[in-house]
């Protein structure tokens, strides 16, 4: 691995969920330690499975990793850091604000930005401190801060005056007011990050179009911040062993096509490629095998299983229950890259094929589903919400209203606050909310739905407006209904959670489910997309991967989902009406089930 020859003292591994950045960070840390270096490995991932992967207890204080001399590891618990952070922010309000107002502020501080800033506050001391005094040659961070957080924290701090006028509705500046570090400490941390001699940002991706696009976006953000020492690691490259297996050949070709079309921002970076491995990345032997040649990796024998394999439901089994009310809102949710746009389009098409009136709305940047479906299916209309346009309009409105009376420094802080990912989510939901009412007269299928945090934040504002209207209108003529009130109604709204049969996507979907439950929304069903276990393969490496998938499917079936549907991995990309119909599948008229055999 060329990265090992150019390893700087600080290594930041970043990438979208499920690309394997924790695996790669662990493998690099172990290899450097095996070569005689003193290494500290730190995870700031809220869903960190570092202890499970290293098979050793890990806490918020560095401790040696058993079996790897010279390697220490620790978890910075972002949720615990965020809790302490919120308490510091809320302290001045206690005794001065009502309990309802304090709860509203607490919800405003429940977003991902709060967690990230709190975590960065914790490890800024490591970046700005004297690394050699700690006795480490390399400090490796699993999960780097986003460009937005770094920009926000590097701006001038006119916090007192800004927060005095903007203590409500700021998605990131609220949590920023709880920073405990000194100005010079943070400046030292930023200096370390932007020094190419000391720091390398390692962008981890998979040979998939969506993951490569996300890595390119991150590379551009960091370049604008002068974090120019970047490298690319393509994880999970696959070469078929069985050359007449259609699943294996299609998987190989799809990865090759994605890399052939690699974004220019990434094409210019130094690149390492790691082949797809047959085993779960748990335990030191597996992690040491990550950077080994393929010939040194022996696929484990699949576990013995009964001849009576379970038959699991396909997506078609969910359609009758979704169609039963005759109208309603169907929200398809999940992390990026799991295929939720495909699932949303397939569900909308299936409902239209049954004669229902359906409107599908998506934020899919490629918009290929809009082009292939629009005008081709009777009863189905399609629209695309442009997140960029919606966000620009929302930001302009907020700058005009909340920016009045602020000085230049305050306006600069507000402008950066509004560059938060939370802002786009709120802006897009405003566009979605205009479609929610349409579900009274037909089906509306919404792709890329907001998190529970955003829903609660918006409803807090809705509650305030309801109270104002009640106070000013003694006898209101109409019952006020907020979007969240509709989403909480199971007769009006059904939520589908989409995931892949892999450890990280399942963990992230489970966390999203808890987030929704905090907003009193219970998901209707889980959909496991692109399952190799359901597709089957004779390729030995893929057979080993299928064994690992079975464990995650069982985890979903027996641990987190009330209903479950499984979509097999398909050799043809799910583009176009016929391919989307194939994604849904058909129900056996005799058994009433979909034959998705594991």
Mean pLDDT: 80
Contiguous uncertain segments of 5+ residues:
155-171, 302-307
Give the number of domains.
2
Strand content: 5-15%
Tally of contiguous helical segments? 27
Strand order of the largest sheet: 3-4-2-5-1-6-7-8
Shape: globular
The number of distinct β-strands equals: 17
Nearest-angstrom radius of gyration? 25 Å
CATH superfamily of the largest domain: P-loop containing nucleotide triphosphate hydrolases
Look up the CATH topology of the largest domain: Rossmann fold
- State the name of the first-level CATH class of the largest domain: Alpha Beta
> In terms of structural class, how would the helical and strand content be classed?
alpha/beta
**Any idea what the CATH architecture of the largest domain is?**
3-Layer(aba) Sandwich
Taking the sheet with the most strands, its summary is: 8 strands, mixed
Helix content: 40-55%
Cα separation of the termini: 36 Å
Short précis:
The chain has 598 residues and is an alpha/beta fold. 47% of the residues lie in helices and 14% in strands.
Provide structural commentary.
With 598 residues, the protein is of the alpha/beta class. It has two domains: 2-291, Rossmann fold (3-Layer(aba) Sandwich); 311-597, P-loop containing nucleotide triphosphate hydrolases (Rossmann fold). Helix content is 47%, strand content 14%. The protein has 27 helices and 17 strands. The strands form three sheets. An eight-stranded mixed sheet has the order 3-4-2-5-1-6-7-8, with helices on both faces. The longest helix is centred in the last third of the chain and has 21 residues, at 452-472. The chain starts with a helix and ends with a strand.
